[in-house]
Amino acid sequence: MGTLDDERRHVERCRAGLRRMLDGARENVIVGETVAGDRYSAERLGRHLKSLAKELSEEPEGPPFFGRLDFGRDSAEHGGRAYHIGRRHITGEHGGPPVVIDWRAPVARAFYRASARDPQGVDVRRRFGWSGRTLTGFEDERLGAGEEGGSTILAAEIERPRVGPMRDIVATIQPEQDDLVRADLDTTICVQGAPGTGKTAVGLHRAAYLLYAHRRRLERAGVLVLGPNRAFLGYISAVLPALGEVDVEQTTLEGLLGAYPVRAADSAPAAAVKHDARMAEVLRRALYGRIRRPAEPAVASDGSYHWRVGEDELRRVVEDARRAGLPYGVGRERVRARVVASMRRQAEARGQTCNAAWERRIGRAVTPALDAAWPAARPEDVLCEVLSAPPEGILTDAERAAIAWPRPPRGVKAARWTPADLVLLDELACLLERPRGYGHVIVDEAQDLSPMECRAVARRSEHGSMTVLGDLAQGTTPWAARSWPEHLDLLGKPGGRIVELTTGFRVPGAVVELANRLLAALDAGVPPTRSHRSDGRLRVVRVAELEKGVVEAVREARAFEGSIGVIAADAHVEAITCALWNEGLDLGERLSVMPASTAKGLEYDHVVLAEPAAVVAAEPRGLNRLYVALTRAVSRLDVVHAQPLPAQLSRPS
Ligand SMILES: Nc1ncnc2c1ncn2[C@@H]1O[C@H](COP(=O)(O)OP(=O)(O)OP(=O)(O)O)[C@@H](O)[C@H]1O
């Protein structure tokens, strides 16, 4: 079984193994640069080897393993063997068995899933405790003997004070989370989970797992992680690199669509119409409505002769291309190709040889005829047209009036696009040409996506699968999802498996109890959260002056370890920041002031929530926003208020 000294010797073996791997990787960088066949492969291989070498050179600092499985003698596959489980595979000496198994390997699954009721061949599960580089101890669960639970190492990891960005949870993934992490690549899963149940963690670990299990397929197709805002991305962006996965694209929807700068905002009624699914048909008609029945023949000269495709034939070519349901830009090029082919047949019938240069020349020469029948289009041209004079037929008069520009811009370049316009421009761009798809897309805070945004995400995942993460109770946009089956439909994955997570790993019990009081008023139809944590502290303090009260709470919070987040209605942020600053409490790595509108997905060890009533009053779904703000605290929550608390927060009678 091994004593602590034996395990420490194993740590040395692991470090030696890592050094060997590092030397090998460095050598390969040098060799790799000279062996690859062409520049592109050399660059790719070089990049891969360099990042592997870099990753390995950073590795010796971290614990090489966090767990160990000892299988019983009667286990069919692993009888009597022991495996150390860590963040990465570490090879043994002289090609011997590995000294550490990657947490994603099939055998490691039992570390997360075995229980006293179902030991899965495991005799003993061992969890290790570390202090920096030093192995400090371990705890055993003799599953084979029916013994399980009560791990203080596990509890300490879950309850540790939070500082800095999000960390991976590989050492403590829970069975119901593991089930989602290891779900098959072809399965789309939708995780409905209360705040802090580990949805984001599950999504990121699923990305790492899928890349391990389906490396070839996904390296080619790509994995995309979509988060709600930049603050959130900054918070989560270290998790996948820490797990050795650096090639995952992590961005916001705006980042994904951002071909145009945002320079304006919509009124609420205009945004509601622009985000409505019917806009897809409005735009489709506006684009394809540009195609005209050809009224003249296509004529082109090759310098010696004029070639001609008559109106009837041209009409047939245009009609065929239109019926083929191709993207608009592809359809236009198909018409061009067909016209050129017809002219080529005529030329060849006359004994002329037509090479590629001839075809290019004729292709250019038929452009005027093509422009008349199937004009070139850019997304911004079409949207300018639509917003200058919204077409009849789909939207009501009031809706058309809501989105119409009061004064159309002088030209396309002067157009001042709004965030919703970016979604419409993307819809048009993808009607013109199919976008790049990904093998797997992970969408966090998916409940907030509008129908048009869902379409944009769906287009990136047409041939792949998705992990959809969200919480109906945390929906804060006017179009937030009310039901997951409907939302999955909009995301193009109607058959997605919907799973609920209800055990919270972030928010302490007392805080969860307060937040749960809002659930009835939110009418989201989700069950209340159960907290895994009985520790933590909740204080509700009424003050005469809000800023002073917040300053006082922050001062006290500084006595504890961990990050401090002041969450306030957006309109209060400036005054609170100034008050803190005036008192010498500078914002930095430990202390931040977060507008309630961007706090989603984030967490702080200690939260000071300023004036809940103002958070509620700031927007139509203010109560949902308050629910989000209340559930950001890991250890302590101070609710500081000068106005009365929202009635929904009072204890249910
Ligand atoms: N199995 C686990 N072991 C240790 N920590 C965990 C585990 N699961 C989740 N956590 C921690 O709980 C916190 C909340 O997790 P996460 O942010 O993934 O929750 P979420 O469901 O996305 O929350 P929200 O809905 O508020 O965005 C994080 O600090 C995460 O590391």
TrEMBL record:
Pfam families found in the cross-reference section: UvrD_C_2 (PF13538)
Annotated InterPro entries: DNA_helicase_UvrD/REP, P-loop_NTPase, UvrD-like_ATP-bd, UvrD-like_helicase_C
Superkingdom of origin organism: Bacteria
Keyword NADP: no
PROSITE patterns the UniProt entry points to: UVRD_HELICASE_ATP_BIND
Chain positions recorded as ATP binding sites: 193-200
Span of domain UvrD-like helicase ATP-binding: 172-508
Keyword annotations: ATP-binding, Helicase, Hydrolase, Nucleotide-binding
Keyword Glycosyltransferase: no
Name assigned to this protein: HelD family protein
Organism: Nonomuraea spiralis
